[in-house]
Amino acid sequence: MGRYVIRRLLQMIPVFIGSTFLIFFMVYALGDPVAALFGDRAPDPATAQQIRHDLYLDHSLGAQYLHYMKNIFIGDFGTAFNGESVTSLMGSAFPVTIRLTIVAIIFEIIIGIALGVVTGMRRGKPVDTGVLLLTLVVISVPTFVTGYVLQYVFGVRLKWTAPSVSPSAPFNELILPGLVLALVSLAYVTRLTRTSIAENTRADYVRTAVAKGLPRHRVIIRHLLRNSLIPVVTFIGTDIGALMGGAIVTERIFNIHGVGFQLYQGILRNNAPTVVGFVTVLVLVFLLANLLVDLLYAVLDPRIRYA
Amino acid sequence: MSTSGATDAVMAPEPEPPGGGEERPLLDVRNLHVEFRTREGIAKAVNGVNYSVHAGETLAVLGESGSGKSVTAQAVMGILDSPPGFITQGEVVFQGRDLLRMGGEERRKIRGARMAMIFQDALSSLNPVLSVGEQLGEMFRVHQGLSRKEARAKAIELMERVRIPAARERVKQYPHQFSGGMRQRVMIAMAMALEPELIIADEPTTALDVTVQAQVMDLLAELQREYNMGLILITHDLGVVADVADKIAVMYAGRIVESSPVHDIYRAPAHPYTRGLLDSIPRVDLKGQELYAIKGLPPNLLHIPPGCAFNPRCPRAQEVCRTDVPPLYRVNQERASACHFWKETLDDDSAPSGDA
Questions:
Q1: Domain ranges, residue B90
Q2: Which of B62, B125, B230, B270 allows an S-S link to B26, with CB 3.0 to 4.6 Å?
Q3: Which sequence ranges are marked TM in the entry (chain A) (predicted)?
């Protein structure tokens, strides 16, 4: 187990270097950050040259990348062009997005798995068909539509919750955005659980559990669900990374100042240090989430052993 | 031609157990009918089965795949997949009470505790993600409300009883870490856990290799003697049956076609199907000859042939077999055969079996 984790961590190094270099290359190659800094006005050549030098932009791309990576390892992600350090931006953005992700994941787990179990046990019944249809609708409608609709209905019309989230973004204000963010994944979790449950209800070990005289809830939860959750856990685990980085639309709709919001701002203003810094952290989150899923997999299914 | 005529006849000659019939049987299955309602139609899997088992007695239920022997057992245990399976008629009297008339919760308390089942494929029948100890201990936790710790101690005790070496260490392991024979021992241990009065073993040794088969059967027979349990042994292996069974019920197309004490049936079968089964056993002294097999295939349960279900495959079939369902004729005090020509079949045995 320990050796496996070490090997996996070592494997992360080339993935990390490759992906960050790609982002670095794209952001720096696609535009002139100095020109973007001055907006419509043409910058004074001497000033521009000075800024370029200060930002290490007068070196080759490779040298810039090495310089950047070196700074990352001493905890310096550079400075956003508004003068705030990227690390302080992260310090304010990540806690908000992490809270949002937690809310979304909880929705996925509770509602998604519950619906999956109910539909999987009643295959072909009206409940099953209804929920299946609903998941199809949720999957096919883009997030910005569901987001605005739910915001209007619950935030503006019914006034159950604030339509936009305050800068501190406490949990109670994140319930609706969390639901919006979770919806598509929730639909997938439902379908995945349903298929898995339906497949396993006829399994021999479930029949054994019934023959042992176990109460129905124990058969379902301990024997059926435990086996059916393995693919679902994999999905939810990988989804953590996707939710953290992919909340751009949701965070815009509800005006949440999280990672998605900062990334959006950074891209819009061609603010290289912000974009590269955030994406680098997201790459790390994704890699670690994947490792965690693989380790969890072995916990859930003892037939899998890592050496 | 309906089956009801046959059913009525079947009701009468219930073979008595050896040693007088005053004692009430432990399990008495009466006129059981099970059907599967599928998209293709209604498959009549069990059509009026009667059998009984007394404490300490072993009944072997014999038959090809699809003869309804496992379905009958599932109906008795109450683990029939429903839908599509439905019990349409009959009684399952266990310790004097009809299980089919019981409420779900009452029935559940009997399952596992008073009657238990051993399945064929222990690898797929044990839960792959729970340790053997948890699965064994669960019996005590659910039925007797023991604590986790007490249940584990009981599980170790059980594993030692079925002679699994190093039980204390292996209790933490998972089913895939056991060999086939050891896994089947775990299954047996699980069935024995609460010392039930009745055990139904559904082809317990089919998935095992021959040397292990014998060990597992010996263990099962020994535990049965020790606890004086009733045992229903479902199998298609005639070799296993001869050693352990007291009586035999041969099933074909959802009916019992012959029932008899074990030794009589080997000496002289009273049904052509039984005879076919016995002739299919490969014999060392007839090496080099072609192996005998009953011609044709078991009937499709959606379209059971009229008359005797075995008639298309029977070497002895006459016109009457194609039209009239044979009742279960009483051959003697302990035997019965559902063949119009049971006398002839029985007499045949004086001549060497040479219809292959």
A1: 3-114+197-350
A2: B230
A3: 12-31, 96-118, 130-154, 174-192, 228-254, 274-300
B233: helix, strand or coil: strand
- For residue A185, count CB atoms less than 10 angstroms from its CB and return exposed for 0-12, middle for 13-18, buried for 19 or more: buried
The pair of three-digit structure tokens given for residue B263, joined into one six-digit string: 């030794």
Which residue of chain A has the CA closest to B136?
A212
- Is the separation of the CB atoms in B100 and B90 below 8 Å? yes
Residues of A in contact with B129 (CB under 8 A): 226-227, 300-303
> Which residues on A lie below 8 Å from B190 (Cβ)?
208, 212
- Residue B227 sits in the same domain as residue B305: yes
Look at strands B255-261 and B336-337 and give their pairing: antiparallel
Contact list in A for residue B142 (CB cut-off 8 A) is 212-215, 218
The CA angle A179-A182-A183, to the nearest 5 degrees, is 85
CA of B349 to nearest chain A CA: how many angstroms apart?
Answer: 42
Give the chain B residue nearest A201 (alpha carbons).
B81
B112 and A205 within 8 Å at the Cβ level: the answer is: no
Asked whether residue B355 is domain-assigned, the answer is no
Structural tokens at position A22: 């790609």
For residue B77, the chain A residues in CB contact (below 8 A) are 211
Domains of chain A: total? 2
Q: Are A281 and A164 in the same domain? A: yes
B129 & B64 share domain: no
- Would residue A306 count as lying in a domain? no
Chain A's closest residue to B125, CA to CA, is: A205
DSSP element (H, E) containing B300: none
Dihedrals φ, ψ of A301, to 5°?
-120, 100
Tell which of B162, B193, B224 closes a domain: B193
Query: Look-up: residue for tokens 């973007």?
Result: A36
